[in-house]
Amino acid sequence: MDSFPEFKGFRKIPRLSKEIIITEKIDGTCGCIYIDFDMNIFVGSKNRWLWSSIQDEIHNDNHGFAQWVKINQNELRKLGIGYHFGEWMGQGIQRNYGLKEKRFYLFNVKKWIDNLYKPDCCYIVPILFTGIFTTENIETALKYLKETGSNAVPNFMKPEGIVIYHTASGYLFKKTTENDDKPKGKDEDK
Length: 190
Known about the structure:
Layout: E1 19-25, E2 29-35, E3 41-44, E4 49-52, H1 65-71, H2 73-76, E5 82-90, E6 102-106, H3 109-112, E7 122-124, E8 127-132, H4 135-148, E9 161-166, E10 171-176
Parallel strand pairs: 6-7
Antiparallel strand pairs: 1-8, 1-9, 2-3, 2-5, 3-4, 5-6, 9-10
């Protein structure tokens, strides 16, 4: 049997008609906070580490996110051990949303929506719909967002789009309010 390659089984296929959670897609910059078993905090962007409570030296801060975490580290320890992803948004970042400050919105809504231990300095991405997957439910949520504007920042009428979390598969999908068929940052003519 030594001549056989490592066996890889085929992954179970989840059913499509299962629960989805649709949240507002916020246009900012991705942020990651990791807390280890000793309650040390590590801060990252989408692609790199920026700061840690062990080293205490900020490397190429991402729109002030590492500095914000450093200042709020005691409160942020309420997040608990593990990786915590979210969107750092507001003044000077992408759409700005007309804000004079910056905010951190946590992605994992199922964990944080009813959690009394959520740090006071964090927000949760707004939930627009929870229910069974249908393309109609997705299109309805996107239409609602286009018509009513951002739920994260009321009266901001140019929200970016929605994120669909398919609970059975564990996958995230996105739809944007404009140019959904184009990769982000690409010219429409290309």
